[in-house]
C-alpha cells in the first residue's frame, strides 16, 4: 500500500498527466492539420480542433491558436490542395493570430474568421476593416453559404470605388469560388454560391424588398452612354455583352411574389464562365444600376445566417505593423533582439559619424587650402563661405541621426517606421504563402 | 292591237366585245396567277398597278391605269400583301437593317424601329404599294430630334432641365423648413407681446397684428407645399426617367440611321424611292429587263 505522500504525489502527477495528454492530443491534431496531404484527414482534425479545449489548469499553454485560427489554417490547407493562388497569411511572431491578405491589393484589407456564437456553430469569413461577412462555414454540417450582399458591398461598392482593378477583385472572387468548389467536390459540401455561381442554366433568385418600378427603363437609360443596349425579351429584358456573354432580367408570374412577379437574373456565356458578380465587376453601368436598385431587389442569400450582415469593424494597421516571422517569440526574446538591433544601429551610426567627421576635417583642410590660395589673391570672403558650408553639413547629419535614434527606441517593431503600403508589402513578403510556390 | 313594225328596239350584237372584255379579265387573272406561282413579284407589281409601274419603272409619261382590271384582285389584297411581303422584307432587312416587322393580321405588317428595349411602334409596311406608312407622331419626333441634334440638344433636354430646376427649388423649400420654423416662432412671440401690451386700455395696433398674421399665413402655405415635396420630386423623377428613355430611343434611332445612311436626308430619299429601287432590283434579278 502506498503511503499518503506517495498518494499525494501520484495524484499530482496524474492531474498533470491528464492535462499533458489533452495538450498532446491537441498538438498531434495540429501537426496533422499542417502536415497531412489527405483532405479527409485534414477535415477530421480541423473539426476536432475547433471543438478542442486547451483550458487546462494544471499544465497551461500560455499562447494558443484560437478556433478562428484553426478555421483559417484549414482553409489555407484546402486552398493549397486545390491550387488557389493570390493570397498570403500574416505570421506575427508575437502572437498566434493568423490573418489572410491578398498579395496584390492596393487598399488596406485583411480577412479572418469569426466564430458564430449561437448553437449553430460554424464561423464567418470576415473582411476585418469593413466587417463584411463574406461567407459562413460549418464543418459539422459540411455547409458553406456565401453572402451576396457583403460580397457586393465589399468588392463592387467599396473596393471598385477605391481604385481596385477588375483583375484584383476577380482574384478575390476566384479565391472564394474555388474554395467553395473544392469543398463541394471533395467533401460533398452543400454550397450556396448565389452571386458567385457561373453556370449558364443557373437562375439567380432575388430577394424582393419592394415592388420594382421602372427598373428596366433605368437600366436602359444608363446603357445609353455605353456600346451595349437593352433588348426586350418575354417578361423582361436582356443585354448582349462582350465575349459572347449575355444577361437576362425577367420575371415569372407568381401570385405569392410582391406584385405577383418573381424576378430573376441569368448570365449566359456558353461556357459557364461568368457569374453575376463578374458582370458587376466588368460593367460599371450594370453595377451602378444594381447598387441603386438593391433596396428593391438583390441576389438572394440566406437571410437567417446573415441576419447580422457585419461583424465589428477593426483597425487592421496594428496587424500589419506586427513583426512577421516563422519562429514564434516571447516578449523578452523580442526585446533582446530589439536591443541587439539598436546596438548594431548605434555602432553603424557611430561609424557614420566618424566618417562624417573625417570628411569634415578633409573638407576643412581643403577649404583652408583654398582660402589660403584665395586670400593670397584677394580678401577673406571665400574662406568664410567655405566654413559655413561645412557647418551646414554637420548640423544636417546630426539631426538625421537623432531622428533615427528616437525611432528605434520608441517603435516596438524591429524595422524602422514605414508607410502603411510598405508595411503591407513587407508583411506579405515575409509570410510563407504555399500558393506562391 | 297590232304591233307597229316601224318602231323596233335594236339590240346590236356585242358578244364579241363582251367576249374580248371577259377574255381580258381571264387573261389578267391568269397572268396574276402565273406571276404568283412563279414567284415573279415584279410581274405582280406590274399587273396590280400598271400605271405606276409604267410611269416609274418604264418611265412612260402619263400611262393609262388598269384600275378596272386590278379590281378583280382587290378583295385579295391581304393575301397578296402577305405573299409580296416575303421577298420585300428580305430586301428591306438589308436596306433598312434597323426596321423589324410583325404581321399583326394577314398582310398587315407593323413596323418597329430597332431591337432595343421599348423600341417604338413606327407605323406600317404596305407591301402592295411598296412603301412605309410611318406613324406621324414618331416620325415627327425623330425629325425634330435630328434638327435639335444639330444644336447639340436632345429632344427632351429642355423638359428635363425644367424638371431638374423644379426639383432643386422643391428641395430648397424643404431645406428652408428650419428657417421658417424660426421665423414662425419669432412672429408668434411678437403676436403674444402685442396681446400682453394691449390689455384693456391700449388697443394694440391692428395694422401690425394683421401684418404678422399675414406673414404667418404665408408660412403656412409654404409649409403645406413643403409637405408634398417628396411626392412631387418623385413624380418629377418619373417624368425625367420617361423623357430620358424617349431621348435614348431617339438617339438610338438616329444612330442607326446614320450608321446605315450617313445622313437623315439620305434615309428619307431611300424611303421615297423604295418602290423604284425595289422593283428595278427585281427586274435586274430577272435578267435586267423591265419590259418583260
TrEMBL record, chain A:
- Composition bias of kind Basic and acidic residues appears in 348-372
* Region of interest called Disordered, as start-end residue ranges on this chain: 348-437
Comp. bias regions, Low complexity: 393-413
What is the name listed in the Swiss-Prot or TrEMBL entry for this protein?
Uncharacterized protein
Query: What is the species of this protein?
Result: Weissella minor
UniProtKB/TrEMBL annotation, chain B:
Alphabetically list the UniProt keywords.
Coiled coil
* Coiled-coil ranges (or none): 160-197
Q: Which domain of life is it from?
A: Bacteria
What is the protein named?
A: Exonuclease SbcC
